Amino acid sequence: MEEYKDKVCEPVAMTYGMSENLVNSGLLTQISSLSTADKRCLIGYITQEVVSEEDIDDDEVWDSYNSGLPPYTLEELYARIDESHQQYLRGEVYTEEESREELKREFPWLR
After folding, report:
1. How far is CA 102 from CA 6, 95, 105, in A?
2. pLDDT tens digits, residue range 4-26?
């Protein structure tokens, strides 16, 4: 297991940009047990909190989540999954530090 200590794992990627307070709160582990309807309600609630705190309108919030790219088809998603699996098998992976640096470059507001 020692050989993989610098590799990115899903929990690290999923919590990138989150405060230690949020990560350690236990909230994230509770989300997976919620129904889809409850998750949608939670997203709406959090969105309204952000809108209120940052004094921006709803359209601006949702526009930030929609980059204007069309959604992928299932075939495209499966092809992307297969390609990433092949990259993994070829050893084309990033260390955790390399991944963090790339995320910082791509999403500077998460710092």
Report:
1. 15, 11, 5
2. 555 545 555 677 778 888 888 88
Q: What is the pLDDT of residue 29?
A: 83
41/30 Cα distance (integer angstroms):
15
DSSP summary character for residue 7: B
pTM comes to: 0.39
CA–CA separation, 31 and 39 (whole Å): 7
Q: How far apart are CA 84 and CA 92, in angstroms?
A: 9
- Work out the average pLDDT over 79-86: 93
Whole-number Å distance between alpha carbons of 78 and 72: 10
Q: How far, in Å, CA of 37 to CA of 22, rounded?
A: 22
The reported pLDDT for the residue numbered 1 is 45
DSSP class per residue in 30-95:
HHTTS-HHHHHHHHHHHHHHHHHHHT--HHHHHHHH--SPPPPPHHHHHHHHHHHHHHHHTT---B
